[in-house]
Structure formats: C-alpha cells, structure tokens
C-alpha cells in the first residue's frame, strides 16, 4: 500500500507554493496525498513565524496531532518552514513526539530527511530487538533513555539551492498558479523574522522560470503570480554565482550596459514577450526596489495586471526609520504618483503594522493620513508582534495591547470606507473578469478583475441546471462583466451578453 502524506500550510503565499513543491517531491517518491491526518503515514505542518499568533496555532495543531501516535506508532510528524528554523529547540521540548524539523532553506532536502527518519526508526527497532534478546526478556519494553534518537533536525543551510530541486511537482488544480522566482531576503527590517528564517536572497535561473510558465500555460493555467519575499531584487544572485550583486551593482550596470542587466523588470518583459500566459501578477515588492523601470515594464507588458502590492508599513518617517525600511513617506508617495501617471487605473494594496515600539498617537495619525492620501484598494493590517532575535525585539514593546487593538480597528474601519469608495468607482462599468471557479452559493461564479478585485456573478438558469460548479465552460474564461453592485469587500456583476475573450 502506498504511504500517505498529509500537509497543512500556515502563512504566506510563498509557503503555499512551498507546500505544493513538497507534495510534488513526495508524490514522485511514491507517496499519496492524504486528505485527513488520520489516514496519513507522514504529517507535515508547513509553518509561519511572522507573528507569535501564527506560531501558537501551529504549536496547538501539532499538540493535537501528536495524539495520533497512540494508535499509529509508526506515524512520522514533521514541522517544516519558518517556525522550524526559528523555534527548533522549543519544538522538540514542547512537542516531544515530533520526529522531523526542517527549515525553508532545507525544503529540497525533505525526501532525504524523511528517508533518514525512517532509517533511524528502523535502526531503533533493530537495536531494541537485540537489546531485548540480550536481556532474554522479550516481553519487557525497552528503556527509552538507552535508545538512539530517531529525530532529525535540518536548519543549517544559508539559502535554498534553487538549482537542485529533486524531481516532482504538484499544483493545486485551477485557473491560477504560483511560480517562485526568488527565495530569501537580504533586507534588515528591524521587526521582521524572514531574513532569519528564509535565509539570504537567491534567484531562480530565468530559463527555468520561463519553462515552468510555458508548462503551466500548456496545462491551461490562465494567471501566474510570480512569488518572492522581494521580487524586485530578482537577479541579484543566481545559484551559479552570477547576478548584479546589490543595489550599487545594479545602478552601475544600468548606466554602463542596461541591455545586460537581468533584473525584475527585464524578467517581466521576457515572460510577457515569450510566454502565452494571459495574466501575470507578482508579490511582494519592497518600495525601495520598486523603480520607474519596473513601472515602465508594467505599463508595457500586456499580460501584467494593473495591480501592485506595495507594503508601506507606516505613515510616519520616524517609525519608518526605526523599522529600517530605507524610504520616507515622501519617497513612497512620489513612487505611487509616478506609477499612477503611467498606469492611471492601477489598483494598490499594502501591509501596515500598528503599535510598533515607540509609535505615538501622532505617528499613528500620519499612517491614517497616508492611507487617506493613497486610497489603497486593499490593506492588510497587523498588530506588532515582537519576534525573537530581531532588532526590535530588544526594544520595549511599549504600545499597550488595547491601544494596538484600537488602532487596528480604526484602520480596518477606514480601509473599509476607502475600499467601498474604490469599488464604487467600478459600478456601472464593464470590466474584464477571469472566472476562477464557483462562488459560495449554488450556481454562482467567482472571478477577479485585472485589478485583483473579487467579483461574484449570480446563479443563472443554465448554472442552476449544471449544479454547484456553474456552467463549466466559463471557468478559466475571461469574460466582460458589468459591475452592478459594490460592497467594501466584493463586487457583484453580470456577464455582458455574448462576450468572450
Ligand atoms: N509584527 C507584526 N507584523 C509583522 N509583519 C512582519 N513582521 C511583523 C511583526 N513582527 C507584517 C508586515 C509584512 C507582513 C507580511 O507581515 O506588514 O509586510
Ligand atoms: Fe510567515 Fe514570513 Fe515565513 Fe511567509 S516568509 S511563512 S509570512 S514568516
């Protein structure tokens, strides 16, 4: 019987994609994907450390899963991803049944690491048998303190060797797919754990990216999201040692030989020119590295959607400085202005942290002003959470919990108001929507505009007949939709008759 692997993912889109790669590598080794943990021989949690809350959820889940070993002693439990790297000691202490810990840079080692755990377990069984034999008391359980440990911890790589991926890939079926273009982060934002968990930046060779995208387009995927902690620094370092090396190296090449510069805008242009993918998105962009060269590439590339996620984090220059973000609000706003001049209907989203150490009422007011000025289509709001080992963790976390909560609520309400306004601009307009799948209710369809706004299409008679999936022919289609109603979180629309892509 084939062994089953159950994998649950926490955290960001990078993690979601990493999980797909893990399932691909393991199914290539003969594993089957298990839908329930009870049916699995290997259970993996791919974890996130960005805030304490994400870690506690994974600790809690693995605490429950450990119970399964009582009925299935051969079960292998693994914690992989960011928390594996950051909390390696705490995991073995708090979760004594966990067998395997592997960090994000060790992702491609997983097939070998699992084989190692299995071999060690086997050796344990053999050692246990021979000890008992020697004792002549085969009915006595062995003293566990004398057993060799079967536990494996792998967290030592500086970065993921992106050019050494074992065979096998898997993808969530659907219309949209993720493609990793770089890994790790070389920045040093004082609150952020990512450089410690994911390691140094490394970019995937362009040809590999192009091949993967061509394969996905061939399989019928319509929209690709390029992923990286900071996609804007693509090309800095490739696995073979080439690359522009840093902001200065990039600047020099730009002046001396721009044709030879393989940076993110150049990659976008190549993908747009050489692949048949309909829609291209990317995330995440660090504002420092989001340059006019990027905005021009976005404008020129027909497949690149009019959407940019550009995390600002705070609207106060004082806080931005202590966060070590490397830009001021003025510089950020200037970039947005420039981008909007080139692509007037660009849709923008952001991340904001409230309650960073030292954030005063005045700093917070400045964040409100910045949000009002930019009018983001969407904003992801976070309460500051000190992360062990980061620079900011050494400072007093002096904004009380209630104040963080209150500021978070104020920004949520403000963003709802702004999102509604942004959405209402689309009412009555006809927009291009890529249908991704069924909506929540029978017969409904769900799709997205190029600006990344979710659109719900009502059930229609033919959809009701077709059942839950709606008319299957429309999933994966790009259609013209008239927006009939807007709320802060969703758009509702109707298909324009006879429209097709
Ligand atoms: N506390 C709260 N939010 C954080 N983020 C990153 N680190 C922290 C932290 N220590 C947020 C940032 C980032 C997003 C992915 O998570 O806004 O852009
Ligand atoms: Fe979480 Fe950041 Fe790691 Fe993604 S990269 S899983 S957000 S800690």
Plain-language structure description:
The chain has 15 helices and 19 strands. The protein has a six-stranded parallel β-sheet with strand order 2-1-3-4-5-6, sandwiched between helices. The chain has a five-stranded mixed β-barrel with strand order 15-16-17-19-18. A three-stranded parallel β-sheet has the order 7-10-11. 36% of the residues lie in helices and 19% in strands. It has helices at residues 13-28, 52-65, 82-86, 88-94, 110-135, 194-198, 206-218, 247-256, 264-274, 292-300, 317-323, 329-342, 361-374, 401-424, 461-466, and strands spanning 4-9, 32-33, 42-47, 76-81, 100-102, 152-154, 176-180, 182-183, 202-203, 223-227, 279-283, 307-309, 347-354, 378-383, 430-438, 445-449, 454-457, 478-486, 491-495. The two termini are 46 Å apart. With 501 residues, the chain is of the alpha/beta class. It binds 5'-deoxyadenosine and iron/sulfur cluster (SF4). 5'-deoxyadenosine is lined by residues 50-51, 191-192, 311, 313, 351, 353, 382, 384-385, 387.
SSE diagram, text form:
Elements: E1 4-9, H1 13-28, E2 32-33, E3 42-47, H2 52-65, E4 76-81, H3 82-86, H4 88-94, E5 100-102, H5 110-135, E6 152-154, E7 176-180, E8 182-183, H6 194-198, E9 202-203, H7 206-218, E10 223-227, H8 247-256, H9 264-274, E11 279-283, H10 292-300, E12 307-309, H11 317-323, H12 329-342, E13 347-354, H13 361-374, E14 378-383, H14 401-424, E15 430-438, E16 445-449, E17 454-457, H15 461-466, E18 478-486, E19 491-495
Parallel strand pairs: 1-2, 1-3, 3-4, 4-5, 5-6, 7-10, 10-11, 12-13, 13-14, 17-19
Antiparallel strand pairs: 8-9, 15-16, 15-18, 16-17, 18-19
The structure holds 5'-deoxyadenosine (5AD) and iron/sulfur cluster (SF4).
The site of 5'-deoxyadenosine has 12 residues, from strand 13.
């Amino acid at each position: 019987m084939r062994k089953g692997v159950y994998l649950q993912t926490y955290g960001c889109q990078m993690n979601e994609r990493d999980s797909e790669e893990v399932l691909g590598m393991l199914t290539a080794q003969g594993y089957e994907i298990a839908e329930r943990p009870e049916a699995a021989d290997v259970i993996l949690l791919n974890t996130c450390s960005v805030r304490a809350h994400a870690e506690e959820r994974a600790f809690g889940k693995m605490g429950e899963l450990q119970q399964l070993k009582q009925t299935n002693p051969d079960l292998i439990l693994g914690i992989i991803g960011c928390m594996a790297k950051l909390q390696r000691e705490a995991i073995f202490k708090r979760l004594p049944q966990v067998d395997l810990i592997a960090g994000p840079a060790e992702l491609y080692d997983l097939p070998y690491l699992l084989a190692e755990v299995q071999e060690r377990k086997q050796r344990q069984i053999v050692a246990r048998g021979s000890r008992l034999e020697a004792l002549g008391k085969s009915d006595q359980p062995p003293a566990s303190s004398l057993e060799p440990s079967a536990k494996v911890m792998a967290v030592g790589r500086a970065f993921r060797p992106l050019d050494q991926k074992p065979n096998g890939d898997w993808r969530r079926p659907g219309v949209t797919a993720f493609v990793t273009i770089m890994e790790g982060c070389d920045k040093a934002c004082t609150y952020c754990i990512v450089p410690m968990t994911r390691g140094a930046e490394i970019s995937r060779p362009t040809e590999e990216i192009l091949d993967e995208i061509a394969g996905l387009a061939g399989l019928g995927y319509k929209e690709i999201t390029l992923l990286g902690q900071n996609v804007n620094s693509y090309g800095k370092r490739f696995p073979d040692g080439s690359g522009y090396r840093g902001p200065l190296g990039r600047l020099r090449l730009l002046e001396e030989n721009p044709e030879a510069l393989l940076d993110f805008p150049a990659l976008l242009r190549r993908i747009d020119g050489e692949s048949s993918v309909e829609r291209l998105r990317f995330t995440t962009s660090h504002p420092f590295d989001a340059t006019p060269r990027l905005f021009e590439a976005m404008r020129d590339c027909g497949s690149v959607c009019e959407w940019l996620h550009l995390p600002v984090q705070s609207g106060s220059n004082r806080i931005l400085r202590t966060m070590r973000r490397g830009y001021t609000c003025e510089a950020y706003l200037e970039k947005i202005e420039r981008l909007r001049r080139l692509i007037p209907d660009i849709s923008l989203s952001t991340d904001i942290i409230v309650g960073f150490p030292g954030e005063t009422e005045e700093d917070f007011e400045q964040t409100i002003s910045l949000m009002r000025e930019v009018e983001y289509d969407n904003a992801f709001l976070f309460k500051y959470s000190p992360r062990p080992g980061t620079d900011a963790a050494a400072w007093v976390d002096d904004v009380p919990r209630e104040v963080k909560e209150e500021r978070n609520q104020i920004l949520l309400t403000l963003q709802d108001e702004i999102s509604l306004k942004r959405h209402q601009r689309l009412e009555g307009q006809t927009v291009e929507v890529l249908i991704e799948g069924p909506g929540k209710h029978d017969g409904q369809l769900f799709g997205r505009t190029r600006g990344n706004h979710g659109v719900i299409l009502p059930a229609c008679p033919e959809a009701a007949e077709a059942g839950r999936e709606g008319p299957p022919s429309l999933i994966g289609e790009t259609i013209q939709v008239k927006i009939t109603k807007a709320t802060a979180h969703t758009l509702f629309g109707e298909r324009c008759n006879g429209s097709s892509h």
